[in-house]
Structure formats: C-alpha cells, structure tokens
Amino acid sequence: xxxxxxxxxxxxxxxxxxxxxxxxxxxxxxxxxxxxxxxxxxxxxxxxxxxxxxxxxxxxxxxxxxxxxxxxxxxxxxxxxxxxxxxxxxxxxxxxxxxxxxxxxxxxxxxxxxxxxxxxxxxxxxxxxxxxxxxxxxxxxxxxxxxxxxxxxxxxxxxxxxxxxxxxxxxxxxxxxxxxxxxxxxxxxxxxxxxxxxxxxxxxxxxxxxxxxxxxxxxxxxxxxxxxxxxxxxxxxxxxxxxxxxxxxxxxxxxxxxxxxxxxxxxxxxxxxxxxxxxxxxxxxxxxxxxxxxxxxxxxxxxxxxxxxxxxxxxxxxxxxxxxxxxxxxxxxxxxxxxxxxxxxxxxxxxxxxxxxxxxxxxxxxxxxxxxxxxxxxxxxxxxxxxxxxxxxxxxxxxxxxxxxxxxxxxxxxxxxxxxxxxxxxxxxxxxxx
Amino acid sequence: xxxxxxxxxxxxxxxxxxxxxxxxxxxxxxxxxxxxxxxxxxxxxxxxxxxxxxxxxxxxxxxxxxxxxxxxxxxxxxxxxxxxxxxxxxxxxxxxxxxxxxxxxxxxxxxxxxxxxxxxxxxxxxxxxxxxxxxxxxxxxxxxxxxxxxxxxxxxxxxxxxxxxxxxxxxxxxxxxxxxxxxxxxxxxxxxxxxxxxxxxxxxxxxxxxxxxxxxxxxxxxxxxxxxxxxxxxxxxxxxxxxxxxxxxxxxxxxxxxxxxxxxxxxxxxxxxxxxxxxxxxxxxxxxxxxxxxxxxxxxxxxxxxxxxxxxxxxxxxxxxxxxxxxxxxxxxxxxxxxxxxxxxxxxxxxxxxxxxxxxxxxxxxxxxxxxx
Lengths: 434, 373
Fold this sequence. Notes:
The complex is a heterodimer. In chain A, 28% of the residues lie in helices and 20% in strands. Chain A has 13 helices and 16 strands. Chain A has helices at residues 121-130, 144-147, 169-176, 179-192, 206-218, 238-246, 264-276, 305-311, 365-369, 376-385, 388-393, 404-408, 415-431, and strands at residues 27-28, 33-37, 55-56, 61-64, 71-73, 78-87, 93-101, 155-160, 196-202, 224-229, 259-263, 282-289, 295-300, 319-324, 331-333, 346-351. Chain A has a six-stranded mixed beta sheet with strand order 1-13-12-16-14-15, with helices on both faces. Chain A has a four-stranded antiparallel beta sheet with strand order 2-7-6-3, with no helix packed on it. The termini of chain B are far apart. Chain B is an all-alpha fold. The model of chain B is unreliable at 162-182 (pLDDT under 50). Strand 14 of chain A pairs parallel with strand 1 of chain B.
C-alpha cells in the first residue's frame, strides 16, 4: 500500500466470511420450477413471448427485450405453466414465466461459430448478441453492447476478484470452467482489436491462480497477463481494475480508458456459446450466512431463493433478512420466495443489524476509505443543506456505490445512501445543463 | 423466519462509536489514575491524591448532570418512542459527556476546588455542547471551553498551588498564568529528561506525564480513534520551530534538548494528542486535519512567544475550532486533488518555523535559561 498523506486508502480489508463455502465442492440442483422474468431490466415487457402451455427446451427463446431484440432463453426443459407476478431478486414484483422443469435437460442448440480465424467480426458480434449473455457481475447489462461501440479497445479485463464477502461462486465454479475464457478470448480479441488481456484475481485465491497458470500454459498465444491484487474491498470494482491495469481514470464507462471489463463468468458463458452453441442456463449461487449448511449450488438460473435456502438446511435464526447478492451491494427482499435472476450470484440469510444511528461525529473514516477519494461526510452535509454547488465541488457524481462509507461508519449512518442521493441530484442537474 | 428490510450495505463494521468513545475514555482514566498515584506520593497535605480523584469525579458527574438536565424533556415529550426512562438513559449515555468532564478535570490544576472543576465542566458541556445540539453538533471543544472558563473565572484556584521549588523555580504551576516570564526559566538545569518523561513536576492534572501520553497517542492512532497526522504535525512543527529558535539564540547542540523540553512542558502534548484531535470539532479530510494542526501550531507559538500568556494551546485550539468549517471548504473536490492543501500546508509550516526563528533572532538565552531581548 502506497503511503498517502492526503489521499484515502482506496480499498480496505473487510472480513470475507468466505470460509463458509470456499473449500467445499458445489452441488448441482434441479428445481421443480424456475421463474424467468417476462420483463427486461427496466421493467418493460418482453416482445414475442411464448404462451402458457408451450413446451420449452434449454435454449428455447422465451422472448426478446424491447429496443434491440435481445433474446431471453429458457434455462430448463419443460412447459410454461403460468405467466404470473412474483417477487424477483431486483426487488420488484414482476410477471415471470413459471416453467415446470421436466429434468430431461434437452437442448435447443445454436450453431457454434467457426474457428476464430474464419469467423468475421459481424458474425462474432451477432453471436454475442444472440447468445443472450448479460454482465454476470451483477449489473445484468447485455454484454454485446460493450463490444459494438466501435471505439478503440486496448485491453480486455477479466474480473475474477469477487471481493464481496460470503460469495465464492467465481472461486469455486469460475475456476473450474476457466478454460472457456481462453476459448472465448481469440474471438473477442479479434472483434475488439485489443492487444492484451488482464486476468485479475486476488492473491489469496489459489484455485483461480492455478486456473490461470494451467490455461496460460495451454494457450500460450493468447496474451493474458495476471494481476493478483491484495485481499481488499472493493478491488473488483470496475474503476479500480481499470486504474490498476491501464493507469487511467475515466468518467462514465471503461471504454473511455480503452478497456472492457467483464466478469469471468460472462467470458465463460460467451466461450460456451461460441464453441458449443449453448445459451446461458446454469448459474452457481452461493447460499450462505445464517443457514445450516452453507454451500455453492449449481442450478438453472431463475430458481426461487426459498428452494435454495431449503437445500442449504434452512435458516438458523428467528429474525433476519434475506439478501440477493453480496452483503455490501446486495438488496434485502421482503420474502424468501423470490426468483433469482441470471446475474444473481448469492442468496444470503443474515441477522438484522438493527442499529440506532448516532449523530455524525466527523471522524472522517468514510473519507479515509473511499475508493474514489471522495469526502462522503461533506457530501452528506451538503445534501442536508441542499447545496448543489457544494455537491458538485465535491464531485458527488463520482460515487461508485460500493457502500464502504456506510460499512465503516461507527455512528451507523447510512452515508452511502445519502451520497448516492447527492449523486442523483448532481447528475440530474448536469443533464438539465445547469 | 421473521423478515426485516435494511438498506445496503447489509454488513457493517463491528467498531461502533460507543466503543471508540469508551476506548478514548479508558485512555483518560489511565492518565487520571497516574495523576492520583503521582499526587499521593509527591503531593502535599493540602493537595494530594484524594484531591485528584475527587476533581476527576466532579468533572464527570457535573458534566453528566448537564445531560441529565438537558434531556429531561424526553420524559414527558409526546414524540418519545418506547420506554421513556430507557430513552432518557440512552440519551445521557450517548451524549458522552463523561469524556468532556474528565478532560476538563485533567486540564485543570489540582489546586482548583472540586466544585469549581465541576462548574467548569458543566458550563463547557451545557452551554457549548448541548445547547449547540448535543454530541456531534458542537463547534467548540467543550473541554477546552471548560478549561478556559476555569482559568478566567477561577484564576485564583488555578494559580493557588505553589509547587515544590525544587522542581519549578518560577513558583506557580505550569499552566497557571505565571506572568510575563512564561516558561522561560524552566528549561534550565531544573529539568532533566527523566522528570519530563515521567511527569515529576507540577502542571495541570493530566498534562505532565509525557511517557504515558506518548503511549496513549500510539494506542489511539493505531486503533484509528484519532488521526496520527494531527499530533505529529502539531507537535512536530512546534518542535522544529523551537529548535530553530534555540539555534538562532546560539544555544549550540543544547538546542535539541532545550527545544524538546520547551515542547514537552506545558500543554502541547496533552492538547495535541487529546484535545486537538477531537473529531467533532476538527476537519474531516486528512489534508484538512494537517492544515488544522499546523494552524493551531502557528497560533500556539505566537501566543507562547509574543504574549504575556505562557500557555497558548487552549486558545489556539479554540480559534482553530472556529476555523474548521472554513478549512473544510478549502479542501474541496476529491482528496487526490491536493494542490491547494499542499500549498496551504507548506505556507503554514514555514510560518510556524518563521515565528520561532524570528523570536530566536531577536533574543538571546541567558545562563539561567531566561530569554533576553
């Protein structure tokens, strides 16, 4: 850690709790029903949807997203029994396809791409779109949109850091499937024109380091460099990785620094589609926290969280909260019967904090830890005064929402939420042209 | 399972504000115990260890009494949630006034009667903390206010203690207003390093035990309860300024020792480690804290060298508390844009050194340790 007199630590060690699931092998699980949203990420209904009663196979097209016909595929084979609203992992109650799983695992395979030398750029981009792969790090942003921007790309960054506490899916399942990353890379390097690839993981993840070593020896022609980072949070945040690899900063999206960042599992799904024509179906989900037997479950995406919790032996506490995702960025759900999404990587049961907030005592811990070098406490004070000029002067719009400021706050104030409110205000003012 | 919903992040650090305040309070108690032991052994019949104990207790109780009074409305106000007595107790405990009270007692001399310590603690807590909105909302450090109140209102009590002349030639204790001579006579032969480190001389109740203070400083910095930048820059810049001063007085190699003694006696270490670092009244950014510490050092050295008052620490802290919002405003933007803070820090640092140098060039040091123009 470089010594900074003025700047923040930029990342800090937080207890990982990963020992719950990191060492055990994952279990596979075929649920009776899966629930796949009939809406896109913004809440608009899908087009060209299948009807109730239709038979589907793995890889059957369920519908397409509205603006760009982005496809949504079924993750199991079976029949659509209903299209009805249930709680989804994002927190909204939306209409979903309730698909009864016949557990036959029949595939509707797409045509795999020819070898990367023969495939044209158009073919590769079209395949990326028709693969239905979205950002598996949690954002759920269609991956192909990052690649068809037409801007120059210097480096592809594989994010295998998984710095959220509790989650071990990339560590357990990503490491096993890592070869698909190397299978996808030639296509992606060709389509982007990138010259190098950065494989980023933490120093304390031997399985991923080993996966890198094995595959790097197997495919020596692909220029993949290893970046092993310290065990800190939020090392896996896009901006930190781009700064680590390119030594540049950017304003909105990584392409401004000529970089594309994707989760390791996104690369795996792309590789699987390019070479085998299989659309995304399985997702490894960490079920941990206050459950009897924490474990990683390999399951078709869209599985209901209460099935997973039952598989892990049920809750061990009387009062608590259900969380989709990791404990720092994840959201609380009102019930355990919610449908996980394709990008869901964890279902956690945790004790309620039930903190009583105390007045801010200006200790500056939030400034000291902010990965973006902001001053959350000052932004919060400006927000209370509704002082837009001051919020702009403090660059509230650069908040990355990692939640560290709330995490470290000894007074238990929701600093992160306040800063994001200020960020929204500043962005709104910028949009309106001041 | 009964479900609750909380905002992200779901995981929080285990370290709470209460824990930090109690750790800080524990450090103060360590100083207090040291003081009780010291005065039990070295004190006189009139001012002994019992006095030290009673003074500290009076500070704590009177400061908490301010809270007891201030939070009374909780008992009948309609918007109180839950058990009223429980809420009342919570408010009193979580105002952390006991810290303020003990700090006031440690900042005053042992010759101050217990009820005067108590009143000072009460005034600092009630008028300068609770009326400003309670913990976290005060502009001035309430303990420093209590200390200055005691010095102004109860000056006879602060100065009453005539120390053993074998330790301090000037007669009055260190923090007492000992006239125009200031600390000038103190750096002579009467002080050796052992006395300075172990605190075997008379000052305010808690300020003389340098070794213990340094241990406390390291502990608090490592636990990240205080920012190490504040004491290091405050004490460091003052030491360098005094060093330059003694060099300019042609003190030779004795300058190192003399400057150290000159820094160590009086309230610089106590103020720099325990009062200046109060997070509530200091800037939040790291660069702001360095500016804050250097600004305080600048005012301290001005007051110490050029005014009749020998002890500038309390006033310097008060003035810098007043300037804290301004410093916060200067340190805008991201903490990696550090051009403006760097310039301010350099200017302030040079200013502190310049004051020491100027004084040193204008004065000479005499054989008895006093300065002559």
